[in-house]
Amino acid sequence: MTSDPPSSTVNDPLFDSNHRIFSDKDLLKIGHVPEADRIVGRDEEISKLAKRLNGAVFGSSPENVMIYGKTGTGKSLVSRHVSQRAQNAAEDNIDIGTAYIDCAEDNTETQVISSLAAKLNDESATDISVPYTGLSTSKYYKLLWKTLDTQFDSTILILDEIDLMNNDSVLMKLSRAEEAGKIDCSIGVIAISNKIQYVDNLNERVKSSFQHKEIFFKPYDANQLREIMFNREDAFRDGVLTEDVIPLSAAFAAQEHGDARKAIDILRHAGEVAYEDEAERVHENHVRRAQQHAEKDRFRELVNGAPTQAKAALLALTELSLNSKDDVFLTGRIYDQYENICMELNMDSLSVRRFRDILKEQAFLGVVEIEKINKGSAGGIHLQNRLIEDPEVVRETILEDSRMQR
Ligand SMILES: Nc1ncnc2c1ncn2[C@@H]1O[C@H](COP(=O)(O)OP(=O)(O)O)[C@@H](O)[C@H]1O
Ligand SMILES: [Mg+2]
């Protein structure tokens, strides 16, 4: 594929329509839904989900589905893809409505219901208008029922990141609307969560009304991640990607847990870094910098929120890692370093026991890895600690806190 520079009517040379690196960067947006032939390794999940929604295509009811899986395993993508296909495939006299809600944004009952009503409502067909704010929850429900009834035979509603929604009665009301005689249109909910216990924690009444099937999404392996990225290669200009870029991005994302979001983020970011560098092509070192940046972002969130004592503890482990060939250290050794740091910072130091708890908590957060070693009958159990993140990145992040500077 050769990409001719797009012709432009912009005359100001300050703005350049002809990007050196990207030819269609939108392909690398997280919310972008790629065409079917760019979707990799999800045939089984796609067909399972299609079976659950099948009824809608022929005028009967779709089933509810709960989708579980870690970040970047394609849950949102597959849900959007299959519901779009169901909508397009529907028999001539069948109208299917679909709507996608991100519960990280719309996290209250009123927000979810008003967004659904606004998204599904076609004013020219229903003659009603749905204001974005200002009505009571029950009014929004009424508008939603009316919208559904006038326009559709059935609807498929995707509630993404549902564990972030603060009120689970939405699920109950949506599930019961048809049997309660409120609407004639059947509703299938696809609820998505990366917390596997989500349904167990629901209130009993909600649980019994939200009858559903479950689908689990497994992480990708490095080959699948590579293929996912190769299928979007045309986001870049021809010949701009050097050959190691995609395999290296895949390797980094596979280390994480097989996260396609991370893979695509790194790839896009590598392109941005290359552009900033005024490079002609994207090279391996751009990927490494993009990866460092991604790690730093994730880590920064964890560290920024950490108490000062935890930062001092991490700094101790970080400095040992930077100044030694080893990367694992006994708790006692880190504690000594920590005490020095506290002294230099004019900070009280905690007891060894409290210090151990801090390391445990950091292990829980995935910043530190702790391994027990048994030193035999006399020696007892010792704990070896290792920093999971790159110590350079960790130190840089900790030192962003002015209280940590000596
Ligand atoms: N099987 C796949 N084939 C192609 N692209 C994928 C696939 N799975 C995920 N992606 C891409 O990876 C990114 C993250 O996927 P997403 O569906 O948002 O994951 P999740 O919802 O599980 O966190 C998106 O850009 C998506 O298009
Ligand atoms: Mg998602």
UniProtKB/TrEMBL annotation:
GO process terms (BP): DNA replication
NCBIfam families documented for this protein: orc1/cdc6 family replication initiation protein (TIGR02928)
CDD domains hit by this protein: Cdc6_C
Protein name as annotated: ORC1-type DNA replication protein
Transport keyword on record: no
Leader sequence segment: none
Amino-acid positions noted as binding ATP in the UniProt annotation, renumbered to this chain: T73, G74, K75, S76, L77, Y220, R232
Family: Belongs to the CDC6/cdc18 family.
Ranges of residues in domain AAA+ ATPase: 61-216
